[in-house]
């Protein structure tokens, strides 16, 4: 039965508390094996052609974008089989928000409307550049935390191709000594997803295709299923 506590605290992760936060994740990963991931990046620059919607064409467009733009933020939510989040013995539930330092809004490619939207949501690009996490250190700690290459973990996304694409680009470069680019074809990409994230990877947006009564975005789907989506609708507090 899911816990009744309403307050969800976002643990904001920067370079100075990265190791501490990953140690917390390592301690509880065995009890919370369902991981939801969401990313923020500097927008989509290349668009697919309306008449070219085959999987390989869609992958080529995603690769073109991911190869040239930067990851800005990763959100992770850990839950157990009943949907409970870690509490660490407190009266609050916790999720994580990792902020990265690589993106420089003054010189790196980006979609201006995406940057404007992120700024309206409170993103401070100057703070990210000065205090954000180094992406290489992030994936190294991610590997030893138990999040990756772990057959007991279930990964969940919503329209998450880009979420995994950014992770695969960095992971394959660092651990497999590949170029800091996505692999050239979709099959190789999917093999790498299985290698790092395992067989239990679910995209809710894709699963909706097999549920005729489910439509729209994540909020609407949650409503249709009668799920508690208060953490998304309320402004969760932050632990910095």
Automatic annotation (TrEMBL):
GO molecular function ontology, one term from the record:
RNA binding
Answer whether the UniProt record assigns the keyword Isomerase to this protein.
Answer: no
* Cofactor field: a divalent metal cation
Report the protein name in the record. Answer: poly(A)-specific ribonuclease
Q: Which domain of life is it from?
A: Eukaryota
Listed under subunit, the entry gives: Component of the CCR4-NOT complex, at least composed of CRR4 and CAF1 proteins.
Q: What class of enzyme is it?
A: hydrolase
Q: Which InterPro entries match?
A: CNOT7/CNOT8/Pop2, RNase_CAF1, RNaseH-like_sf, RNaseH_sf
User: Which Pfam families is this protein grouped with?
Assistant: CAF1 (PF04857)
Reaction catalysed by this chain?
Exonucleolytic cleavage of poly(A) to 5'-AMP
Quote the EC number. 3.1.13.4
Tell where it localizes.
Cytoplasm; Nucleus
Is Transcription regulation one of the keywords?
yes
Q: What does the protein in this record do?
A: Ubiquitous transcription factor required for a diverse set of processes. It is a component of the CCR4 complex involved in the control of gene expression.
Keyword annotations for this protein, in alphabetical order, are: Cytoplasm, Exonuclease, Hydrolase, Metal-binding, Nuclease, Nucleus, RNA-binding, Transcription, Transcription regulation
Q: What is its main location?
A: cytoplasm
- State the organism named in the record: Vigna unguiculata
Similarity comment text for this entry: Belongs to the CAF1 family.
CC annotations in GO? CCR4-NOT complex; cytoplasm; nucleus
Q: Which SUPFAM superfamilies match?
A: Ribonuclease H-like
């Amino acid at each position: 039965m899911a816990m009744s506590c309403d307050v969800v605290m976002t643990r904001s992760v920067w370079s100075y508390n990265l190791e501490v936060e990953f140690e917390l994740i390592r301690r509880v990963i065995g009890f919370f094996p369902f991981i939801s991931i969401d990313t923020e990046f500097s927008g989509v620059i290349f668009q697919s052609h309306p008449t070219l919607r085959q999987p390989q064409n869609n992958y080529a467009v995603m690769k073109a974008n991911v190869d040239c733009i930067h990851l800005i933020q990763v959100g992770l939510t850990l839950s157990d089989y009943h949907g409970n989040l870690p509490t660490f013995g407190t009266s609050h539930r916790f999720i994580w928000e990792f902020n990265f330092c690589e993106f420089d809004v003054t010189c790196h490619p980006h979609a201006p409307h995406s940057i404007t939207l992120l700024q309206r949501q409170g993103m401070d690009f100057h703070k990210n550049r000065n205090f954000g996490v180094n992406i290489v250190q992030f994936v190294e700690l991610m590997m030893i935390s138990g999040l990756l290459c772990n057959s007991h973990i279930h990964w969940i996304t919503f329209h998450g191709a880009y979420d995994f694409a950014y992770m695969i680009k960095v992971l394959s470069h660092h651990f497999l000594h590949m170029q800091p680019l996505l692999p050239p074809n979709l099959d190789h990409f999917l093999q790498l997803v299985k290698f790092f994230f395992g067989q239990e990877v679910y995209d809710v947006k894709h699963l909706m295709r097999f549920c005729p009564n489910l439509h729209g975005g994540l909020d609407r789907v949650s409503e249709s299923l009668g799920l508690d989506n208060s953490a998304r609708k309320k402004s969760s507090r932050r632990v910095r």
